[in-house]
Amino acid sequence: MEPKNDVLGLLTQIDNMTCGLEKAQSEQEPVAWMYEIFGDTVLTTNQKKIDLVLANGKTVTPLYTAPPSKPWVSLTSEELASIVVEHAGFPTRQLAAIEAALRSKNT
User: Fold this and answer.
1) How much is the pLDDT for 99?
2) Does residue 9 surpass a pLDDT of 80?
3) Do residues 34 and 61 make contact, with C-beta atoms less than 8 angstroms apart?
4) Which residues fall within 8 angstroms of residue 74, CB to CB, at 6 or more apart?
5) How far, in Å, CA of 53 to CA of 59, rounded?
């Protein structure tokens, strides 16, 4: 198999493995909620209490164990093709360049 096909096959595998990550991250559940009442800040983990607070028109802030992560940004077909052509015959260099390009887009 040609190096170009090896890289594209590897990228397809990576894409297949990561395609569900964005959905999972966006569905993260809050571990608690924060709201203000009579000038005091209240923290609670009770969902029923939050439903009542919301029903009374109060603003509620969900709290998470980690901040929601930004969505994954992939390389375009043109960017990928450019890297593959630029480093043709050197699969290790292709992978390093792809990794660097993805890192720069996602950090």
Assistant:
1) 94
2) no
3) yes
4) 15, 102, 105
5) 8
Main-chain phi, psi angles of 62, to 5 degrees: -75, 145
Sequence ranges of the domains in the chain: 1-12+20-28+69-107, 29-65
The Cα–Cα gap between 33 and 84 comes to 48
Cα dihedral 90/96/102/106 (nearest 10): 180
pLDDT by residue (tens digit) across 21-57?
544 545 678 899 999 988 899 999 999 999 999 999 9
pLDDT at 20 over 70: no
What pLDDT score does 91 carry? Answer: 92
Token code pair at residue 73: 């940004």
Phi, psi of 41 (to 5 degrees): -90, 130
- Residue pair 98/12 in contact (Cβ under 8 Å)? The answer is no
Could you give the CA distance from residue 34 to residue 17 in angstroms, rounded to a whole number?
35
Cβ atoms of 4 and 84 closer than 8 Å = yes
Q: Specify the residue for token string 């009579």.
A: 38
